[in-house]
Amino acid sequence: MRFVLLLVPVLAVIVAYQYVRHEITSGQPRIALPQSQPFLSAPIEGSKLQAGLKFKLDQKEIQRLNGENLARQIHESTVRMQDSAAYIRNPTGIRWHGMPPH
Hints:
The protein is mainly alpha-helical and 102 residues long. The chain has a domain at 57-102. Helices cover 55% and strands 0% of the residues. It has helices at residues 2-26, 59-89. The mean pLDDT is 79.
């Protein structure tokens, strides 16, 4: 009796698998999805986006920000390399906590 109770779900799975395999390999679409018209839009013009505000890029401010970002990245890379060197010298060091530097 137990064997029959175990065999019934297995047979149901096999039948479902064969049905799905047959449907997929038949090549016939089972669901006809409606096709919509393509959405056409004109190119976006930046001059029309202004809301009465005149926006001007200050080249000196951009250079200053780029310099600050570069200095910050160099500092972070230096600290990361120092951490890596300290970890390589003593991976089980007393002062090292957490995962290794990457």
